[in-house]
Amino acid sequence: MQRAGSRQILLLGAALLALSGCVTDSIVQDTSRQAAKGVVTPIIVDKFPGRNTEAYSNCVIDNATTNEIFSLAKAAVTGVDQDTINTVVGITTRGDTLKCFVKAELGSSLG
User: Fold this and answer.
1) Are 61 and 40 in contact, with CB atoms under 8 Å apart?
2) Are 8 and 2 in contact (CB under 8 A)?
3) Residue among 91, 93, 4 at smallest CA distance from 40
4) Structural domain boundaries enclosing 53
5) In Å, how far are 28, 45, 46 from 101, measured between CA atoms?
6) How far is residue 40's CA from residue 34's CA, in Å, rounded to a whole number?
7) CA of 70: how far to CAs of 22, 37, 50, 102, in Å?
């Protein structure tokens, strides 16, 4: 578990450097999305057992706003709370996220 904590600290450090202008926006976005996905995936496992976790997590991240991504990435360091869970659940109820889930299910049944 300590290894995951170190990774989260590194991700936060990269995000902070990026915010200070030392790193490009693309790296900030990629790092934030990666950290956010680390938070989203366990929530997806809990809320959608037996589903295509990887695809569902991608659907949530792809349909999150920038502010939601940063909030979820922050939770990678500060810890998941009920607001974090509510954010993920809220994203899962959006039309585009639901369409993405359907595509993921169809893709997994075909593959």
Assistant:
1) yes
2) no
3) 91
4) 2-110
5) 26, 14, 16
6) 10
7) 18, 11, 27, 26
pLDDT tens, position by position, 3-56: 456 666 766 766 666 655 545 667 778 889 999 999 999 999 999 999 999 999
Question: Which residue reads 């929530």 in tokens?
Answer: 43
State the amino acid at position 98 in one-letter form. Answer: L
Averaged pLDDT score across all residues of the chain: 86
Query: Is the torsion defined by CA of 33, 81, 84, 70 positive or negative?
Result: negative
Quick one: pLDDT at residue 1? 41
| Total structural domains within the chain | 1
Give this prediction's pTM: 0.75
36, two tokens: 């956010």
Structure confidence by residue, pLDDT tens digits, 65-106: 999 999 999 999 999 999 999 999 999 999 999 999 999 999
